From TrEMBL:
GO terms for cellular component: Golgi membrane. GO terms for molecular function: glycosyltransferase activity. It is found in: Golgi apparatus membrane. PANTHER family: EXOSTOSIN HEPARAN SULFATE GLYCOSYLTRANSFERASE -RELATED, EXOSTOSIN-LIKE 2. Residues 87-373 form the Exostosin GT47 domain. This is Exostosin GT47 domain-containing protein. It is a single-pass type II membrane protein. InterPro entries: Exostosin, Exostosin_GT47. Keywords: Glycosyltransferase, Golgi apparatus, Signal-anchor, Transferase, Transmembrane. Belongs to the glycosyltransferase 47 family. It comes from Buddleja alternifolia.
Amino acid sequence: MASLNSINKSTRLFSSHPHHQALCTRAHQIAALALIIATFFLTRFFDHTLGPCSSPYRNSYSDANQYNAQNDVVRFEGASGYGSHLNLKIYVYDEDEIDGLKLLLYGHEGKISPEACVKGQWGTQVKIHRLLLQSTVRTRKKEEADLFFVPSYVKCVRMMGGLSDKEINQTYVKVLSQMPYFRLAGGRNHIFVFPSGAGAHLFKSWSTYLNRSIILTPEGDRTDKRDTSAFNTWKDIIIPGNVDDGMTAQNARLVNPLPLSRRKYLANYLGRAQGKAGRLQLIDLAKQYPDKLESPELKLKGPEKLGRTEYFQHLRNAKFCLAPRGESSWTLRFYESFFVECVPVILSDQVELPFQNIVDYSQISIKWPSTRIGTQLLDYLESIPDKSIEEMIAKGRKVRCLWVYAPQSESCSAFSGILWELQRKVRQFHQSAETFWLHNGSIVNRDLVEFSKWRPPMPLP
């Protein structure tokens, strides 16, 4: 009661009319204390009823329960910088609208089919395009658009012989020169997808023309082969890789996870060596410890080639799935591991991961120095109790929906996550070195021609 008495004394000291003040009895004190307690519990009740103000998936290393999301749904809304709801307008360029765009989509004579491009690691170029066409954020009015999407299946087209590197470069420059809104903002409000390890380097002149644009890519580093990485953490967005649809389906999956007790191996690495140091070390380690680490030599063709189902059957047979760097820092194996429910172990130091404002990767994966691949790694993994492994897998189940390219109607998907990330990139005002404005708000070019009268082809940087 000492604290309550001191409060009462303070009240009497600062009363403007002390001679009229009512006496504070013990009954008053008990009532005040009851009111405080009631207010506390009512506040807690409404907090839980109405939901949290910020995402339960915020990156907080001190909150061990942050993955206990309401209804197991990942939420971007309310998290810092995202806003309370999606309020985004994206214009998608039509393939007939810009001369040359069809070449970037289908190659010469339209020989490359979208169905051929939607499978495999590069399928995100097709999937994101299709999802945007059906999305509620799509607008058909350029003047009300926040952002502009430039569709292209150029990685697939190149790999299938539809365009050469030189033709890709020339076609991109031609396409960009026909876009007044690209010129208006210096490309800052235009979105491009580059779905492979090469990133934007597929367009040789990307550093000249797309150095301000928003690039969607799974690859955050290619400095191993080039002086400059095409990924910029402040403007670009890391996207999940394209996991086989047969594994992301809600009901009929190619294979289902095994209980930990039935898994044959401690860890596995399923991939080609490609002459990469980390991969070669894992293959050698598997030969030394065949009972702990599985690393079969994968064949790209012939009777010994692993089929889709066989590949995932191998992948699910270990507690940990090792994901070393290959030709580039990202690896599809990281995302695949969540659907066979093995804990991914990242062995790629420069890797960039998607949605880092929302997901705390330290709770659902392990990142181990690529310079320490060896028996120390196996000893460490072997020391982790099954209970901890199960907890990491359980948390991974709650976020793996973010690796699935599902329609916007799904409450949690890679596409929805990308839209939320794009919303953070929207600017109220657009300008570039070749954009000027007058006292009446008119936007003009260097020759003082108003924006509405700009005609292609327009000069580019």
